[in-house]
């Protein structure tokens, strides 16, 4: 029997321990007794509303220093609102079943009996688990989970793994991951986790499961916390002799040619139609770029899983940067092959999928290529190149009128996902280019045309629609079909000297546009910006939408970056210090290396912008001060677009000009600070598209 000294020592040790948080139901009771909303508490704790919900239903626990702040707050509330002043929640009906889940018991108030899990969802029985790896360790969400869309992936597309073995998935689920090495993690993911996502197209492939590693989880698995070197961190890779790379190879797994970097893909040869591939993303290696995923690196694992889960469900399971994901989405929605029957054997074999880009890379026409492309270098091409880029134009100060100079405001209008809007119903070439001399122009045929548009005389207070600089063209130049068609639309005769045209065409980007448009509008609606708002309410909603939920704000930013990055990837330039002009670089081996498609999107977006500028000048007599990419600045008598946009007597916006709204191609208020900064860069001879933070730069280079 223990002595009195031993018992007192044990009790003293308990007293010295850090006080624990009260029961989750008590946390919610104290907050409600204080009259504080979850959103307000989240703001005070510098976290998200969803995280506070997780604290109050037991799905996650705060970590230092947020833990200490939360403890202090709850202690203060407990003194003011003792438990006897409010009804105590009833005990859960089945306490034994909750203990097996490894989480604290939940009250009927936070989790109805009908929603209480009676066991773990059954994962695909590929091998016997070493422990109940797929059983949620904490209670399920407050509302009953919807049945999984695909029984093969009951736990969603991805999970965020922390050092304690907790793998945070979508819908608040938490899995136990016993892996102590990268090969074990891959095996657990494929055989026990129940992670993955079904194909987006019937002829496509299921999405590989994604495991995101926190810095602590990476170290636990034997990986360095950060990659260091002279190159950008996203370009760095583990050396081939690193112990983790050796572990992967010894376990007979393979890495792609990209090696073990921030986005590592580990695979074995597929068994029939069953893929064996896991995608890893390392947070501390900058896998999730702050420009595309603002604030994500500072979130807790459960919130990171929520953000990536929403993106995966609405767009695609991330497979790299947002630019990579944008390109992968094109292929997922337009798979290159489909099953066709071999007439000789009667077997089903892969065949070309009509409307896709096929499986083989395709060289562009010389004017569509970049100067370092082998098509240009090996042929000695000197005939010029397409220059279909976004606007970078500032009106000459000599063209400003006295009335404009006396207006007190400059108001910026930014077109929502202008390049996504340009991708809608866009006909592009699907076959190789053919060369023609002195062809008759046809606006329905996508391609590149050598034509002289220098005779087109337009108002100098507007940028020229034919050049990114907005300056009037001099002599013949190469233009994409949409640019030449717009000259014809303005009433000018066009006589091409040469052309590179494609005989097989199609609206390749249509499903890509439709999915991203729906994702973008859904993300805005989640943040309170809906299509039923009038213009005044829309501006007010846009002004505060970033404050509603940091997690959903990150999703919105990622969707926008996916659009611009995906288009930029269509003409990815060579990267690395050791590249030599004329050599082929890896991106050229993709069927989706299509600079002509990128040119078509940008040309249509620029033409759309000029059409609105021209209509605005006719309706209001107003001319822009500057245009940078998809943003235009107007002089204004007031601080709001409502002070100068054209409206009919009925109060409805006039068609043809800029209109406010959340849909792609419609306008929103934009600050002019970045525009003024870009103008300063232009005056210094620098290219703003390579310096402006965010998405426009990737339209030029890709990632």
Describe this structure in words.
It contains 21 helices and 20 strands. The termini are far apart. Helix 3 (38-44) packs across helix 4 and helix 15 packs parallel to helix 19 (595-620). 32% of the residues lie in helices and 13% in strands. The chain is an alpha+beta fold and 703 residues long. Strands 3-2-1-4-7-6-5 form a seven-stranded mixed beta sheet. Strand 1 (158-161) and strand 2 form a beta hairpin.
Q: What would you call the structural class?
A: alpha+beta
* Rg for CA atoms: 29 Å
For the record, give the distance between the C-alpha atoms at the N and C termini, rounded to a whole number.
Answer: 69 Å
Main sheet makeup: 7 strands, mixed
Instruction: Tell me the overall shape.
Output: globular
Query: Which blocks of ≥5 consecutive residues have pLDDT under 50?
Result: 85-148, 691-698
Task: Please give the count of helices.
Answer: 21
Q: Spatial order of the strands in the main sheet?
A: 3-2-1-4-7-6-5
What value does the average pLDDT take? Answer: 84
Number of strands: 20
Query: What percentage of the residues does DSSP assign to strands (E)?
Result: 5-15%
Helicity range:
25-40%
Q: What is the oligomeric state here?
A: single chain
